[in-house]
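User: Design a sequence. Structure:
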């Protein structure tokens, strides 16, 4: 890999109470995994958890403990009372990275005005990048088209590396 010596390791978390109860098939988790692996990113964990702040936060922390450089969640970012993924994510972040969430919402707006209703957040805990994606497989794929090009540079910077391979000063 030119420019990026180290492999990126990711974890995928689908947030869905109905999915966790076996009442709905998880299509977003496999869509995230497929897109990540197609981009050369190793997925070390894939989990399905209910819409519950402590459970979502614990799943994110467990993924970080497994060595994930990138943790992606899908679902639970809307306006319904049980959509708590942003709150669970904020509870574990050291700092937010609002530009990522803004870019994902801007991409969603191309497809539907409802994109502005997404409350997804992005940020970092230590060396790990954490990003909330929407719940539908189509929206996951569209979001990853925007996100994946910046992931190597973001991970490099979070790891404390110079980031010089991501941009050159003139």
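Assistant: Done.
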């Amino acid at each position: 890999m030119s420019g990026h010596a180290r492999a990126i390791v990711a974890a995928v978390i689908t947030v869905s109470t109905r999915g966790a109860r076996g009442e709905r098939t998880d299509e977003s988790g496999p869509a995230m995994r497929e897109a990540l692996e197609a981009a050369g990113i190793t997925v070390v964990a894939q989990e399905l958890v209910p819409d519950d702040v402590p459970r979502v936060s614990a799943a994110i922390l467990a993924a970080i403990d497994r060595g994930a450089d990138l943790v992606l969640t899908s679902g639970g970012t809307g306006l319904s009372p049980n959509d708590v993924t942003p709150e669970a994510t904020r509870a574990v972040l050291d700092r937010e990275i609002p530009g990522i969430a803004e870019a994902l919402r801007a991409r969603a707006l191309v497809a539907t005005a409802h994109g502005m209703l997404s409350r997804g957040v992005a940020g970092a805990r230590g060396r790990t990048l954490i990003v909330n994606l929407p719940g539908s497989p189509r929206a996951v794929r569209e979001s990853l088209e925007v996100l994946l090009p910046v992931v190597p540079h973001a991970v490099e910077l979070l790891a404390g590396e110079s980031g010089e391979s991501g941009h050159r000063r003139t």
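Residues 9-158 form a domain with the Molybdenum Cofactor Biosythetic Enzyme; Chain A fold (CATH 3.40.980.10). The chain is about 40% helix and 20% strand.
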